[in-house]
Amino acid sequence: MDRSVFKLTLPILFGYIPLGMAFGVLFVTQLDYPWWGATLMSLAIYAGAGQILAVSLLAVHASLLEVFVALFVLNARHLFYGLSLLGRFRGAGWRKGYLIFGLTDETYSLLTSRHRTDDTEAEQRRDSLITLYNQSYWVIGSTLGAWLGRAVNFDSTGIEFALVALFIVLTIEQYKVLGQMLPIWIGAAAAGLSLAILPSDQQLIGAVVLATLSLLAHYRFHRPSVSAGSQEHSHG
């Protein structure tokens, strides 16, 4: 074990173990699958919040299309993360695929904020270890949660609120970064409208489509004024 990498990822361990356990408990209590299915899912998919969302959707018999759309929208931000790291991953060889696969919000934060040296190969090795350690924490947490959820009888009512709490935290963090309430209000309005007018099996996709179209329209109509303002400033 690389102690320096372990020390660097220690905060992730304290977050991933309990949240992974919550996912594992949800997996075995909400779905009719063996406990080790949670382990396999964490090894093969490793989507964190996406896995919790998938379990919640499958538990209410959502269609595979709804699950796909929801996971794609939830994890679309990773496309931008990956683009910003293409230069850093160049020449990583066999490690490159895993670095891309294992990229999460927390891993991205560590990779972009830690001190780096001029030894590219050594730094890419450390990047791979950081990614591997972080996924290991998630796999351990989800395995423990799934095993305990199957082996110990307890009332898991309300544990699915972990997903709601997680998204509340993500929303707050996004607000801190963007400093804008408009996307939040658009999302809330889209969800409310979908609940009011669409059947239950179409509400999620409807809300996602409405929110996405509204945000694109807002961007389309506000972009020219920003560009114009920049041009006037440059001419001034």
Descriptive key words:
membrane, 236 residues, transmembrane, disordered C terminus, transport, Brnchd-chn_aa_trnsp_permease, single chain, mainly alpha
What does this structure look like?
Helix 3 packs antiparallel against helix 4 (64-75). This protein starts with a helix and ends with a helix. The chain is an all-alpha fold. It is 79% helix and 0% strand. The chain has twelve helices and no strands. The radius of gyration is 20 Å and the shape is globular. The longest helix is centred in the last third of the chain and has 33 residues, at 203-235. It has two domains: 3-177, no CATH class; 180-236. The chain has helices spanning 3-30, 36-44, 49-59, 64-75, 77-84, 86-89, 95-101, 105-113, 120-151, 161-178, 182-197, 203-235.
